[in-house]
Amino acid sequence: MEFQAVVMAAGRGSRMTELTTGCPKCLLPVGNVPMIWYPLNLLKRNGFQEAIVIVPEMAKNEVSEARIDTKVDMKLDIVTIPSSEDWGTAESIRYIKDKIKVDVLIISCDLITDFELHQLADVYRTHSASLAMLLAPVSLSLVNAPAPGQKGKHKRVRDIVGIESHTGRLMFVNSEADFEENVPLRKFILTRHPVVQVHSDLMDAHLYLMSKWLVDYLVENENITTIKGELLPSVVKKQFYHSKTEGKNDITNMKASVTSVDPKKDIHSHKKTGEWYDLLSELSTRSNQWGSLDDCYHGDQVRCYGYIMKDGLCVRANTLGSYAEVNRLIPKIWDSVTGNSERPISASLSRSKSQGGDDSMIGEGTNIADKVTIKKSIIGNHCQLKEKVKLLNCVIMDHVTVEEGSTLQSCILCSNAFVGKGSELKDCIVGQQQRVMDLSKLSNDVILEIEKFIEI
C-alpha cells in the first residue's frame, strides 16, 4: 500500500448552517446521493479499496445508517471525533496518527471532480515531494451563484499562490488577507527559482498527498490546528530553510529520509516516463544545463508542489450558492464526474400530462401528479408533488410534500418539509420538517426551527 486515503467529513458546514442544522454536511444530497459519495467514488475509481473517514461523533449513527460503504463498495474505517471539540483539519489528522502507516492522501467530503489522481501522484513521485496539492481554476459561475435565502453575495476569499512555472514547485500559498500591498519573496529564493507565476484565480481543491513524516511533524507541533491555513503555508515557507540551528523539532530536521520513487507503484497505472517527468527533465536541462532533476532542488530536503488542473470539473460544494449550483449541474455532468452512465435509481414522470427532461433527476418512490412541470431540479426520494406544481432550479430533499398549484423557483427544501397549496416561493430555504402555509408568497426567506440554534 503506497498511500492511505483519509476523507475529511467532520466539518460543520459553517457557511451553510441553514442546511446542516438537521443533517450532517457530508450527507447532504447532491444529485440524490450523499455528498461524501463523490470523493469516495473518486478514490474507488482510482484503485483505492479502503479509506478512513473522519466524522463528528454526533453524526456517527446517521453516517452508519446511510451505508456509504455498500454504495461505493469500499472498506471504510469510520472514525469519530468529539462533537464538543471544534477541531481543525490538522487536529483531526493528529487524532488518527496511529492509523496512518504510510504516505497519505487527504480529501475533503465536499469535493466533486473528474480529476485523475495519478496526475498528482506522478508529480509527487517524480520529485520525491513532501507535499503535493491540487489547484484548479476558480469557476466564476459557481463563485457568483446566487444563494437561496440570501440577498447579498457571498464574499469570496481568494488565495494567492506562487508557483514555479516549469516544475510546479510551490513558492508560497496564503490567503489574500495575509498580504498587504506586496507579496514578499526572499532574494535568494528568486535567484534559485527565477520564473515564478503568481495566481489569484486558483482554488485549493483540498486534495493533498502528504508524506508520513509530515503527520509525525503535526504530532510534534500541537499548535498547528488546520492544514490549509497553518500547516500548508508553514511547510511551503520552511522548504527553503537550511539552518542547522533551528531546533530539533524544525520541519527540515523532522524529515528522516526521502522515499525513493518506485516506478512499479501506482494510483494505479503510473509510469515514471510520463508526460510530466519528460517535460520536467527537458525544461530543467535546457534552461540551466542541469544534468538531472536533483540539481534543481538545491539541496532542499523538503519540497512542495502544486498541480494545476487544466481540463474537467473541480468544485467544492461548501457554500449555499455552490451547493445549489452543483445540484443543478449534476444531471449534465453525472457521467464524467462519476465514471458511470447509470444514474441512481430514479423515477420517471409517470403521467403523460407532466413535463420534465434530462436536466432534472427524480428520486425513488416519488409520486408526481398531473400537470407537474420540473426544470433543472433535483427531486429526492419518496416526495409528493401534487397537481399543477411548477419547479425551476430547485433542490428538493427526501420526503417533501408540495401541495397543488404551488410554484417554486431557485429554492432548497430540506427533508420532510411541507409547502401548502397555491404558494409562491422564490430563492427560499425551507428547513427540515418545516411547513409553509397555503397561499404563502415568499422571496429570499429562510424558514427554520430557530430553537435548534440555541445552546444552553
From TrEMBL:
SUPFAM superfamilies: Nucleotide-diphospho-sugar transferases. InterPro entries: eIF2B_gamma (IPR051960), LbH_EIF2B3/5 (IPR056764), NTP_transferase_dom (IPR005835), Nucleotide-diphossugar_trans (IPR029044). It comes from the Eukaryota. Pfam families: LbH_EIF2B (PF25084), NTP_transferase (PF00483). Keywords: Cytoplasm, Initiation factor, Protein biosynthesis. Its main location: cytoplasm. It is found in: Cytoplasm, Cytosol. Component of the translation initiation factor 2B (eIF2B) complex which is a heterodecamer of two sets of five different subunits: alpha, beta, gamma, delta and epsilon. Subunits alpha, beta and delta comprise a regulatory subcomplex and subunits epsilon and gamma comprise a catalytic subcomplex. Within the complex, the hexameric regulatory complex resides at the center, with the two heterodimeric catalytic subcomplexes bound on opposite sides. Belongs to the eIF-2B gamma/epsilon subunits family. Acts as a component of the translation initiation factor 2B (eIF2B) complex, which catalyzes the exchange of GDP for GTP on the eukaryotic initiation factor 2 (eIF2) complex gamma subunit. Its guanine nucleotide exchange factor activity is repressed when bound to eIF2 complex phosphorylated on the alpha subunit, thereby limiting the amount of methionyl-initiator methionine tRNA available to the ribosome and consequently global translation is repressed. This is Translation initiation factor eIF2B subunit gamma.
